[in-house]
Task: structure prediction
Amino acid sequence: MNFTRRDLLKAGAFASVTAASPLAAQPLLVSPASSLMPRSGKRRVVIAGGGWGGMTAARHLREKAPDLEVVMLERNPVFWSCPLSNKWLIDVVDTNFLVHSYMAPARRHGYTFVQTEITGIDRGKKQVHTAQGYVDYDWLVLAPGIRYAFEAWFGNDRKAIDHTRTNFPTAYIPSAEHALVKQKIRSFKGGTFVMTLPPPPHRCPPSPYERACLMAWWWKTHKIPAKLVILDPKPRIAPITVGFREAFEDLYKDIVTHVPNAGVKEVDPFNKVIKTTAGDFKFDDALLMTPHQAGDLAWKAGVIGKNPKGQDTGWAAVDPQLYNLKDDPQLFVIGDAVGAVSPHFGHYPKSGHVANRQAKAVAVHIADQAKGNAPKPVIIDNLCYMLVNNSPREAISVQFDYKIGPDGLLHQSQIDDNDRRAELWESDLRWVAYMFEDFAAG
Ligand SMILES: Cc1cc2nc3c(=O)[nH]c(=O)nc-3n(C[C@H](O)[C@H](O)[C@H](O)COP(=O)(O)OP(=O)(O)OC[C@H]3O[C@@H](n4cnc5c(N)ncnc54)[C@H](O)[C@@H]3O)c2cc1C
Result:
């Protein structure tokens, strides 16, 4: 049975908002096998995932390619920002600061937002399948973020995976995990608290160290006898090596121990033991960060790259300067899911800033394709501020710049600002205000 859009709207079958039809979330009344959204007559861009990359792409596509219909599909009812969420864990910012409406920007910029779980992608038919029906596309922008690769530790051992996910969550994906981590920090009465860091590449490389500083600040301020052990697979803290090292030594000497070269070999979440290449560690509580990979949707779309041995890289293989697939040029991937972009430095830092820049670049590329023009590379940058002290508020930062070298490849330069100071915290607030205004303002 085929439903028309009018039928669906009458039935309130999906939660969506367009410039013309603001609706609230409604129960599902339609088969996932039918079309969720008949063609409007315009060519359509579907954005799969409404995080930092997807939201930015939706807004800027409407500006750069006003003749195209833009549809954004996202499972969460509201936008939750991972950037600044470490500060939320210790009440530097409140919940309203991180949460944004999906409805208001969709109305303001004139795209359609549908709250739904994406269940599959049929590249042959150019359809995105959702729990509520499929959506046809001419262009697809995949912006699924990351997944936690529990299999790297536990294989198919569901019991160990579920126990770890439930008891030692990490809050690295926009979800209710953040509330669990906040609760965990507050209820810790003392003892050894372990943080495992994923091997690179992973989401927001400096953020685990920032989180360590802010957790240590909380326990120091509340006089909790906590020892925080950071198990880091890298040989040294990176990025902002000196700034974080000095913060650990100057501010949290009695609390934080950073253990380099501590790659995880085995995790026993039931007996709370971790075996690493730097020795074995017992813990009372923990944030157990597994390796990160491109989000599930990138796997479902079949865009994961292969290494020279023919193994999955875990990340999407896209053109390093245009972010589309060589054999499917109207399929773009943006944000953390993107794989290595240069033999000189590997991956772009997996940050909200980079996701924002890539989304804007892809809006330009799609507008060019729609007009029949050849897309040209758009050079991006990256910037991250990390709060290391909350009394007084002091931050450090890292900036990355990129250029295309004479070899035609991307080159990266990095500037660490290790000198912690209030001014960088103020810059962080200005940065995030600009970013939220850029994609989430309604
Ligand atoms: C603690 C922490 C601190 C950080 N600090 C900073 C910072 O200071 N600066 C900075 O630039 N970056 C920071 N980041 C990194 C930043 O959050 C990510 O790089 C950014 O969110 C990547 O954007 P994205 O669009 O690729 O993924 P996301 O923002 O994660 O968006 C992906 C979206 O896809 C949706 N999705 C996935 N699968 C489906 C599906 N099947 N169906 C429907 N929807 C789906 C998800 O719900 C999600 O909303 C931080 C991250 C963390 C965890």
